[in-house]
Design a protein that fits this description.
The chain is mostly beta strands and 320 residues long. The chain has one domain: TolB, C-terminal domain (Neuraminidase, 6 Propeller), CATH 2.120.10. It is 1% helix and 46% strand. The protein has a five-stranded antiparallel sheet. It has a four-stranded antiparallel sheet with strand order 2-29-28-27, with no helix packed on it. Strand 7 and strand 8 form a beta hairpin. This is SMP-30/gluconolactonase/LRE family protein. InterPro entries: 6-blade_b-propeller_TolB-like (IPR011042), SGL (IPR013658), SMP-30/CGR1_Lactonase (IPR051262).
Length: 320
């Protein structure tokens, strides 16, 4: 862990070291922890959800043919909520008996784009992002034409009603609430022009206002999924955004357009305080797409990173 600001030192455990607890995935995403002692993580290109048992260390297939599952969450009754972001293009809930309940697959009579990430609020409402990634190509599902005119953030009320709460972001991605749920944070992919996290005030009527740019990843970093801890810090999946340098450099006698930022410098988890200042960095050997807090004390950081799932104990606890 790199301390970028003295305020981050309190979250660092000197004797805690990084663990690769599972590997063998093609692109790991959407980890979610269950108090029974396991983590579910999506392996999108392999179209499956994997299960890591922290008591036995076993890493097994939880669900094959998983609808190209991406983001996952746990609702207030301990049920799995999943964004199936390609082909089916829907948000589903896994009931206690294993049945699948469809929560959303369309809006105003048209199919959703590619549900990406999801969070459950304390009032049991389900909020999710709907960018185009799952239908843009063949790597994470199947290419398809979008039916929605915009890429939205939606809210599913406890009554099942679906509302588009944001319609002006270019490919919204990760999202999370502040600990008091008075603010919603949403990643915008590349419309500002860099990847950014926007902050919104959440009204009593569930409307969003006061749009403010909290974090700008600049022209090298790639924000993806993130989680908020009890102190309001944002722990963000981080890596290179794939942007190439404007001019080629000489590599072994050839002119090569290299990445603006080196993966070995950017891969990991960047931590920002509630004011949007970078205060810490967890360096990883692979790019981190998403993460979750878990463990019996909610202080074990699980990080879904390319082919692997990593874990690290920290002096911080997930907000929910």
């Amino acid at each position: 862990m790199l301390v970028l600001d003295p305020s981050f030192a309190r979250y660092r455990i000197y004797s805690s070291t990084l663990e690769q607890v599972a590997t063998g995935m093609r692109w790991a995403e959407g980890p979610v922890y269950f108090p029974e002692g396991y983590v579910l993580v999506s392996d999108i290109p392999n179209n499956r959800i994997m299960k890591f048992d922290e008591k036995t260390g076993a890493f097994t297939v939880f669900r094959a043919n998983a609808g190209w599952a991406n983001g996952n969450a746990r609702d207030r009754r301990g049920r799995l909520i999943t964004c199936e972001h390609s082909v089916a293009r829907r948000v589903v809930r896994t009931e206690r008996d294993g049945r699948i309940t469809v929560l959303a697959d369309s809006f105003e009579g048209k199919r959703l784009n590619a549900p990406n990430d999801v969070v459950v609020k304390s009032d049991d409402s389900v909020w999710f992002t709907d960018p185009l990634f799952g239908i843009n190509g063949e790597w994470e599902g199947a290419r398809a034409k979008p039916e929605q005119a915009t890429t939205n953030v939606y809210r599913i009320g406890s009554d099942g009603k679906i509302t588009a709460v944001l319609t002006d972001l270019v490919n919204p991605n990760g999202l999370a609430f502040s600990p008091d749920e008075k603010k919603l944070y949403v990643v915008e992919w590349r419309g500002t022009p860099n990847r950014s996290i926007w902050s919104y005030d959440v009204g009593a009527d569930h409307t969003l206002s006061g749009k403010t740019k909290l974090i700008d990843a600049a022209d090298q970093g790639a924000l993806d999924g993130f989680k908020v801890d009890r102190d309001g810090n944002l722990w963000c999946g981080w890596g290179s955004n794939g942007a190439l340098a404007a001019e080629p450099s000489d590599v072994g006698g050839r002119k090569v357009f290299q990445l603006r930022g080196r993966s070995e410098d950017l891969d990991g988890v960047m931590v920002f305080n509630p004011q949007g200042k970078a205060i810490g960095f967890v360096r990883l050997p692979e790019r981190c797409a998403n993460l979750t807090f878990g463990g019996p004390k909610n202080n074990r950081l699980y990080m879904a990173s390319c082919h692997s799932l990593y874990a690290l104990y920290v002096e911080s606890h997930g907000a929910a």
